[in-house]
């Protein structure tokens, strides 16, 4: 079992000072340590963006995919080796903009993967353009006269699209994040976690103070199994009205991988490749 600090690589985190991604990274390492996650049982995937840097600082095997494409990489890995815990990190732009279609269909198929969305409501890495989560009216580099679009709600979308675990947490609530990440990883089926993340450099609206004033935790007696109630909860977004917690959980629904009889009997990773040397194939097709 590795200690949390043993997950540090030699690369020093280069998130902006004060970035909410630091909190997410710390929570990931704590959860990895508590659950015994390592490269023998876990794969990490990310898209392109500040969120994707998390892979560089964490000592677990990983792939940084193309922008908007962490989900197809994650589902591919899970299909080849269903024994792995597969955790995909995505930005709100990455997940809902460039990768929007993958997001919807992975929920619909109930792939047994975890999708952690670093939702800073802005394109961080490219220095502050609007994303599909940017509030209406907000002035950004790409919308100097105010954003004309209305934001998407990834938690509500995930619930209606068919994900079987949908939660919301906040990057400055370490214990809450750890609890939610742990539940998501243990859940069988598609887990979507919207992590409200401050971007102190480019999002001056969804600040630490904004979230401190407006988030609240779902009460202990909240029942996440009622889909319609969960959707109503997920749609709450306003003054003192942003719920954190497990919004929706459906247990026992077969995952996509469960339904592939051949793979569930013998994972592809355990199968001898039919062609071991591809040199001749290349010669034939190039
Ligand atoms: C197909 C494609 N479009 C655009 C880009 C440029 N690009 C790289 S990162 C990024 C924005 C990332 O924002 P987000 O996904 O919200 O992640 P964050 O940086 O905020 O963590 C963009 C537009 C790209 N690399 N590939």
Topology overview:
Elements: H1 21-35, E1 42-46, E2 62-64, H2 70-80, E3 85-91, H3 92-98, H4 100-109, E4 114-119, H5 154-161, E5 165-170, H6 174-186, E6 191-196, H7 208-214, E7 215-217, H8 227-234, E8 242-249, H9 261-265, H10 279-285
Parallel strand pairs: 1-2, 1-3, 3-4, 4-6, 5-6, 7-8
Antiparallel strand pairs: 5-8
Helix pairs in contact: 1-6, 3-4, 4-5, 5-8
The structure holds thiamine diphosphate (TPP).
Thiamine diphosphate binds next to α3.
Could you explain the architecture of this structure?
This protein has 286 residues and is an alpha/beta fold. It has a single domain, classed as Thiamin diphosphate (ThDP)-binding fold, Pyr/PP domains (Rossmann fold), CATH 3.40.50.970. It has ten helices and eight strands. It has helices at 21-35, 70-80, 92-98, 100-109, 154-161, 174-186, 208-214, 227-234, 261-265, 279-285, and strands at 42-46, 62-64, 85-91, 114-119, 165-170, 191-196, 215-217, 242-249. It has an eight-stranded mixed beta sheet, sandwiched between helices. It is globular, with a radius of gyration of 19 Å. The relative contact order is 0.13. The structure holds thiamine diphosphate. Thiamine diphosphate (TPP) binds at residues 48-51, 67, 91-94, 98, 118, 120, 122-126, 131.
